[in-house]
Each structure stands twice: as structure tokens, then as C-alpha cells.
Specification:
The protein is an all-alpha fold and 79 residues long. 71% of the residues lie in helices and 0% in strands.
């Protein structure tokens, strides 16, 4: 298969985007059972948030704080 470089690179980028979407879908599915009416987030919003986070630089301290808040949320007793 001989493709011009531009077409080949566009095809590769589209494939990578689909791969990333599949990975994000799997991540969203893993947190979906823990969502309730207040914490529900649509997949599209989850995907937008994930892509925004990749663009921002965060310190180790900020990442640790986020992880701790997630753990606290998961440890809440369910009603």
C-alpha cells in the first residue's frame, strides 16, 4: 500500500484518536458504576476533561491531592 505521506499521517492520526477514544471509554465504564445523580458525567464531558488535563501541567502535589479526593469519594458509605 503506497500512500502519500500526508494521507498516511492523517490516517495514522485518525487511528490514534480512535484508539484513545476506546481507552477513555473503558476508563469511563470503570467509573460509571460509582456515579450517582450528583456525580454523573457524560462520556463526552469525560472525554473533553481528559483531553484538557493532558494539555495542562500539574505539580506532583496537585496530582496527589486529586487522588486523595477520589479515594475519599470512593470510601463514602452508600445510602
Amino acid at each position: 500500500m503506497n500512500l502519500p505521506f500526508k494521507e498516511g499521517s492523517e490516517l495514522y492520526m485518525k487511528a490514534m484518536e480512535k484508539y484513545q477514544d476506546e481507552r477513555l471509554w473503558d476508563m469511563w465504564l470503570s467509573i460509571f458504576p460509582n456515579m450517582d445523580k450528583e456525580s454523573f458525567i457524560s462520556f463526552e464531558q469525560f472525554k473533553l476533561n481528559a483531553r484538557k488535563q493532558k494539555l495542562t501541567k500539574r505539580t506532583d502535589e496537585e496530582i496527589i491531592q486529586d487522588a486523595e479526593s477520589i479515594l475519599k469519594t470512593l470510601k463514602k458509605p452508600s445510602a
